[in-house]
Amino acid sequence: MTATRRPLVISDCDEVLLHMITHFRDYLGEEHAIDFAWEGGSFVNSMTRQATGEALSEAEMWQYLNLFFDTEMHRQTPISGAVEAMAELGREADVVILTNLHDHRAEKRAKQLAGHGIHARVFTNQGPKGPALKKIIEEFGATRVAFIDDIAGHHASVAQDAPEVTRLHFIGEPAVAPHVACAFAAGHAHARIDRWDEALPWLLEKLHHETKEES
Q1: Which residue from 12, 30, 105, 209 could staple onto 16, CB 3.0 to 4.6 Å apart?
Q2: Domain count, the chain
Q3: Which of 164, 170, 197, 198 lies closest to 182 in space, CA to CA?
Q4: Chain-centre distance of CA 5, in angstroms?
Q5: What is the pLDDT of residues 105-148, one digit of tens each?
């Protein structure tokens, strides 16, 4: 018997669908004379004032990060292949976005993505994504679910809260990818793929494979 509900794809946005860190780096340098050198550490340890070399405080880091999302999201550009991949996945599954932004930015993020040709419902979240993902799955009633995110910790959270979900660790920003701990190597993701021309066939195979198992 074939499942009646469509599969569900739950994707992150920044560094999965849209470049963020490189645009944030450029914004800090151009507008605030702040250098941003991120090599896998925390944001706060990556930001220094150009004039003095002084590191920013955590409160200042959040101030500039919030300013970026309030005023500079227009800078963000799509990861290569992301728009086409979301369109193809949308033919096979329901596609939604789970992004760690404050709730008041959900509509702005949806409009931002739509402007790039990605039309999907946006869910906002703060903290680990496992609990939020479970609520989304319950709402859609999906039994076949794929989760895509660039942060290893979110894969660990989903692995704990929804271990049946197919989990793809994906980092589409080449300046970031080599410096991020691999959720696949840690056992929290089913694959680590950083290019959409390779990730899309893998995801489609998983969706089709699971469909056949349920037939």
Answers
A1: 12
A2: 2
A3: 170
A4: 24
A5: 999 999 999 999 999 999 999 999 999 999 999 999 999 999 99
